[in-house]
């Protein structure tokens, strides 16, 4: 039996026009699973999380955990947050400034009427999990951002909740700290196996932490799957774009071959053979560049012109034009001296492995096309 079960969840906010923040959402989560809700601003992640927490009341639907009903619009059941035994971690650490770390961590135990030596022990244990034992008698103002977030993590764990809800908990930390706390969170989840829903708009965070990623769009799940599946097989162009396949190359079929971005392609493209026009999506990291076609043997190639080349240490970002289109290739900067010497106006050849170019139909919302290899060899190549 799934641990958390959400059925037909719907939430509209009044306004002109009204906003549908959650649109007939259905999903379930197994015990111990960490599910990430990923998507751009306004897609409904936070509202979904707040409905799970009981901080927001949905217009319709059901939520249950471990067979216990938390919310059921038809039966007018809506348990308040304190009756749901959940832990919460927010972007703003939401610590009480006038309380010590010890009191802050122990705060959720109060409403559960847990006191005395047992409460003290649970606090010590939670603090130890995130390495803040030494800070228990300090006040939040005496802590760094990373330490404050670890304290709020300890507070979310202290009452041994059935589920933990995370609302962009890492986005206030600077890049290095974010990586540290993320690694710690990953390790903690592996060790404790808590059930969690984690909201973020950061794809690398989602891939790193999730057992399953749900990519949200306009209050619905556009795709839900394990990180590998979502990363390697984005179901729609929307998901592809959000997961870094930022190059969009329109493709058209011409007498047995294919033109991509209005240019002659040499090599293979994967797309169903019974299709007319389609679109290829590809990551900058999956595009290679070289002076000549012969340097990119085995890859599908097209001609391009350098618009700009930006040095980035280990990589060089090449902004290129292919006919009327702009594309972005991120090429290795440490080994390819040539890439660092490129200047605007230079002609280059761009190549990609056909497996890395995902094909979609041109109609809005088209699903990933499972392609057969479509030979487009031209010019004797
Ligand atoms: N209290 C509210 N009143 C009116 N509209 C709201 C309210 N809260 C959210 N919305 C709207 O509902 C939609 C979903 O908002 P939500 O905050 O869930 O998105 P989000 O994906 O979490 O975005 P972000 O990443 O910016 O937090 C948005 O269009 C938002 O403007």
UniProtKB/TrEMBL annotation:
SMART domains (alphabetical): AAA
Sample GO molecular function, one term: ATP binding
Residues in coiled coil: none
Keywords: ATP-binding, Cell membrane, Membrane, Nucleotide-binding, Translocase, Transport
Pfam families for this protein: ABC_tran, TOBE_2
Alphabetical list of PANTHER family matching this protein: MALTODEXTRIN IMPORT ATP-BINDING PROTEIN MSMX, TREHALOSE IMPORT ATP-BINDING PROTEIN SUGC
Protein name, as recorded: ABC transporter ATP-binding protein
Species classification: Bacteria, Bacillati, Actinomycetota, Actinomycetes, Propionibacteriales
């Amino acid at each position: 039996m799934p641990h958390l079960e959400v059925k037909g969840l719907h939430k509209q906010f009044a306004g002109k026009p009204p906003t549908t923040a959650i649109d007939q959402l259905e999903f379930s989560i197994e015990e111990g699973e960490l599910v990430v809700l990923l998507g751009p601003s306004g897609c409904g992640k936070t509202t979904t999380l707040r409905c799970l927490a009981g901080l927001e009341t949905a217009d319709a639907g059901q939520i249950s955990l471990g067979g216990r009903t938390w919310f059921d619009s038809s039966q007018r059941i809506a348990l308040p947050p304190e009756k749901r035994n959940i832990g919460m971690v927010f972007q703003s650490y939401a610590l009480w400034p006038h309380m010590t770390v010890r009191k802050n961590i122990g705060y959720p135990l109060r409403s559960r009427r847990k006191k005395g030596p047992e409460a003290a022990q649970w606090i010590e244990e939670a603090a130890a999990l995130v390495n803040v034992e030494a800070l228990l008698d300090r006040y939040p103002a005496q802590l760094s951002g990373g330490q404050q977030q670890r304290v709020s993590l300890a507070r979310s764990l202290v009452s041994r909740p059935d589920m933990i809800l995370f609302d962009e908990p890492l986005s206030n930390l600077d890049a290095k700290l974010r990586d540290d706390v993320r690694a710690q969170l990953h390790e903690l989840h592996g060790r404790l196996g808590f059930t969690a829903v984690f909201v973020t708009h950061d794809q690398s965070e989602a891939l790193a932490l999730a057992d399953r990623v749900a990519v949200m769009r306009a209050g619905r799940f556009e795709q839900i799957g394990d990180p590998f599946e979502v990363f390697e097989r984005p179901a729609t162009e929307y998901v592809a774009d959000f997961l870094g396949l930022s190059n969009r190359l329109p493709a058209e079929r011409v007498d047995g071959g294919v033109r991509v971005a209005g240019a002659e392609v040499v090599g293979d493209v994967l797309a169903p053979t019974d299709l007319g026009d389609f679109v290829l999506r590809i990551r900058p990291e999956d595009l290679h560049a070289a002076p000549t076609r012969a340097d990119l043997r085995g890859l599908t190639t097209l001609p391009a012109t350098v618009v700009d080349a930006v040095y980035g240490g280990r990589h060089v970002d090449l902004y290129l034009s292919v006919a009327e289109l702009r594309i972005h290739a991120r090429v290795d900067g440490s080994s390819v001296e040539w890439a660092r010497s490129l200047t605007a106006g230079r002609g280059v050849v761009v190549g990609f492995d056909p497996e890395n170019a995902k094909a979609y139909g041109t109609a809005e919302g088209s699903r990933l096309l499972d392609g057969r290899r479509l030979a487009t060899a031209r010019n004797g190549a």
